[in-house]
């Protein structure tokens, strides 16, 4: 089942971010800022800024950027799992929409390993062929936005 692959991929990114967090403490190269500052620096649109606020609502008021990036990666990972689960349920209920199968099979989130751009490409691939208003189209759009927020917060650590 591919859902395990999705979870494994997300865990890889989380471990990577945890390692970056440790390196940040040792090297003092990770910025320390308030969550609202992190969202302002990470997000190019008001909609993404609002999503960033939602993502970091339970984060410390001020922390290293790696803390915020880790929380965003967790949030995005849960979203990916929810989308893959919804696609699996639609297929199990007899849906034959090829795009749903792609979201389970070829929307291979193994590519998440260490690169946010690859995660965005995987989400984009999953969305190809989803008709507007399709059950997974909204979920896929949310996954994309969460990936962009996670990428922006990660860029505060590793650069763009």
Automatic annotation (TrEMBL):
Residues 1-26 form the signal peptide. PROSITE patterns: PROKAR_LIPOPROTEIN. Keywords: Signal. It comes from Panicum hallii var. hallii. This is Pectinesterase inhibitor domain-containing protein.
């Amino acid at each position: 089942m591919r859902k395990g692959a999705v979870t494994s991929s997300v865990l890889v990114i989380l471990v990577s971010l945890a390692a970056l967090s440790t390196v940040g403490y040792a090297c003092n190269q990770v910025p320390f800022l308030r969550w609202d500052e992190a969202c302002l620096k990470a997000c190019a649109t008001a909609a993404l800024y609002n999503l960033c606020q939602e993502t970091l609502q339970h984060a410390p008021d001020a922390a290293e950027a790696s803390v915020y990036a880790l929380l965003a990666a967790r949030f995005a990972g849960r979203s990916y799992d929810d989308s893959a689960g919804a696609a699996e349920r639609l297929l199990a209920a007899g849906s034959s929409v090829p795009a749903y199968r792609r979201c389970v099979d070829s929307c291979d989130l193994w590519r998440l390993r260490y690169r946010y751009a690859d995660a965005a490409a995987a989400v984009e691939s999953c969305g190809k062929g989803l008709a507007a208003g399709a059950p997974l189209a909204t979920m896929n759009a949310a996954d994309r936005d969460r990936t962009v927020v996670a990428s922006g917060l990660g860029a505060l650590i590793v650069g763009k």
